[in-house]
Amino acid sequence: MTALASLAEVVGPSACLTAADDVAPYAVDWRGAYKGTPSGVVKPNSTEQVAEVVRRAATAGLAIVPAGGRTGLCGGAVPPANGPASIVLSLERMNRIRNVDPRDFSIVAEAGCVVQNVQQAAAEAGRLFPIQWGAQGTAQIGGMLSTNAGGIRTLRWGNARELVLGLEVVLPDGRVLDDLRRVRKDNSGYALRHLFIGGEGTLGIITAAALRLQPALKRVETAFVAVPSPDAALSLFGRAMESGAELIAFELCARYCMETAAKHGVGLRMPLPLESPWYVMMEIAAAHPSVPLREMLEEMLGQAIEAGEATDASIADSEAQRLNIWKIREDYPECARREGFAINTDTAVPVSAVPQFLERAIAEVSKRWPQGRISAIGHLGDGNIHFGLHVPPGWDDDRPKWVAATEGFESLVNEIAVSLGGSFSAEHGIGQSKRHAMAAHKNPVAMDVMRTIKDALDPDGRMNPGKVLP
Amino acid sequence: MTALASLAEVVGPSACLTAADDVAPYAVDWRGAYKGTPSGVVKPNSTEQVAEVVRRAATAGLAIVPAGGRTGLCGGAVPPANGPASIVLSLERMNRIRNVDPRDFSIVAEAGCVVQNVQQAAAEAGRLFPIQWGAQGTAQIGGMLSTNAGGIRTLRWGNARELVLGLEVVLPDGRVLDDLRRVRKDNSGYALRHLFIGGEGTLGIITAAALRLQPALKRVETAFVAVPSPDAALSLFGRAMESGAELIAFELCARYCMETAAKHGVGLRMPLPLESPWYVMMEIAAAHPSVPLREMLEEMLGQAIEAGEATDASIADSEAQRLNIWKIREDYPECARREGFAINTDTAVPVSAVPQFLERAIAEVSKRWPQGRISAIGHLGDGNIHFGLHVPPGWDDDRPKWVAATEGFESLVNEIAVSLGGSFSAEHGIGQSKRHAMAAHKNPVAMDVMRTIKDALDPDGRMNPGKVLP
Asked: What is the ipTM of this complex?
């Protein structure tokens, strides 16, 4: 019996794909940047099946590439081009919500649940699953946790990591680490779950998670604000935090990004004329009906304009206006793609260092690549800015030329972030695309400890090879 | 040169204690339950000194027991009675606050900083360092992180773990893992810090931490509420969460505990007559001046009384009254000690399972030890109840008799918690006192992964031997 036939025995023939046409979609990432050659795609529908697949793959000497919604930006869910013989293990059939407990403010979901479905199940129970980002309609819980996804609300409720109460993981040797407990305090030994969260499937396969829920947000107020500079935006951020309003999102966007959204967006309306160099999108929330949310926001923005931290502001007057503001933000990446090819980064620095980071990055990049168009958009409240460089108009037909021309851009920007005490990988993870950045920028002692842990838990290097560690 | 003389060379003779009288205080925990025989006490005052001490201790074959404020309840900071030759490495001289950045909402503190000093430094910058528990005037940052301390505000801001942005750690081989970055998002490889947080010094020594700060709380409202049952308390908790008020503490206390506090407390005043079987202490907060906090609390409690979730309530009318309520809670452990010897536990269950946990524990314990007096007090909002059994009046002179009579109490209560998907060690850690509970209740796969990690990072077992892992 071939190795794949043995795996088909576990999951059933219809859940074990080997025909080239069936395997092809799993062999490439959605941007088309990474392409591998898996021997097959296996779709277990239970934790026991995952465990048995892992054991049989080990016997057959096959590496395992776990995959979820495959919306990642770093090629983490695709086998590397010249990697060892491997299968893609897709969690998509493990899509049950095992438990929703409103009194416990928790939900237990399998790895293959689409993030939006978990949000909906929580909402139906009168609760909020607070993580939110553009790909939530496709991304799955397993991928969200394996990459410790961020998004626009981490400012208030944390990254994916902070939402986890317990995990169920299949280890590289096929044993099940059943730590799927809904416990908010547990100091019984090492916090193993945090190795698998953000571990990108290189230490084990997350099969289910117990997740925190919040009380439903009853009201939000949202503003689109023109600010003269990143430093002014930082002051506005401090003002909002100090005001005592519950700030749940604070995004900073360069005018170029808003122009790009206005140019390519479908059905988007800019709330203000694009006459300011920078814009902020901010949202405050309240669950209690007696909190005068609108007045709080108006007062705060009035004071900010008086203090010179803002020059103009538009507060959403309806849910449609509010959704329009967030649609600008969420559609921006797609609009940017329509504008043309870009080299991009995913940096984080201390929140107070964002203005300095942007000043240095803009100065050095515009000096070295004056023909490029700088994009800068991101989560100021987390210090996480995506700083990119768009191909000059007309060059888009020759991407390799732009790639060659911008050699050094990514490492320059990452270097500036790291020199300010920051990170070259804030929320997207490492996958295949940032392994060279790990080699260049990651603390060598940290890297060595990571390798020690990888070797101890996955001595044969069978789990998602060619990812994370260079 | 002796090993201790070599260490004195590193830290200076006055910071290397070897005389029996000088060493004695470090050889025993504050409860007097654990006593070891360290060869000496070494007090480095810099990260470099810690690293050099670790290297020289390794050469000399000495184990290292890291120590901070030594307020732990589990004997974690004291060498075990029959352990290997060891030194106590006290971080007390590493007590500098390296940086406070209000715009970044962060503070960088060395391990030896007393927790209260960090709270004060944050307050002086207009910020809140939110962790709070009884021992904060003595406990140090390193111990707080090594044990992932909890307290009464984890409900809102998490355990110590959730407050960490970055860590500096000296590894068992003396290398420094410098990850002291103030970055809120960082997905560059495995989240190593979480191994050391809650690792109780068995994988390395935390020397400094970058910690999150919050906007200062401008106002709080606090209530002492009589509730008919734990289930009613749970409903009140849900009501408070759903109301949209910012709930920052929610404690549940059995009447017996309040009677004990009333009997032994100094200067405590009970806000209500002790006629109810259970009491809740709750606090809501607001940083924004326009939030009608008092009205929110009054309305919520009025509705709760109408719904039968509460029978009476006293809202603090002044800061003195508010402090009195929290003093009842914080002084309770000392009052309980005055009442007599007790066997205690530190369990957590899902929040919604607290009533079931208490019902089962009370039924089984009162049946098996009818002469004992049951205490139950804890953080209902986290599912973390300290369930204990006080010696009967008159028996206190014969502690060994009560210890013998209550054999099986701890494992019975822990077993009930674990069977409800809970933990036998919620916030105090394992140290020496709960290693038998680890052996009895911890998932064996989790234990095996912990041992693999311990062996990989500390192959000679030099870091805090005899702790955490059985």
From this structure: 0.96
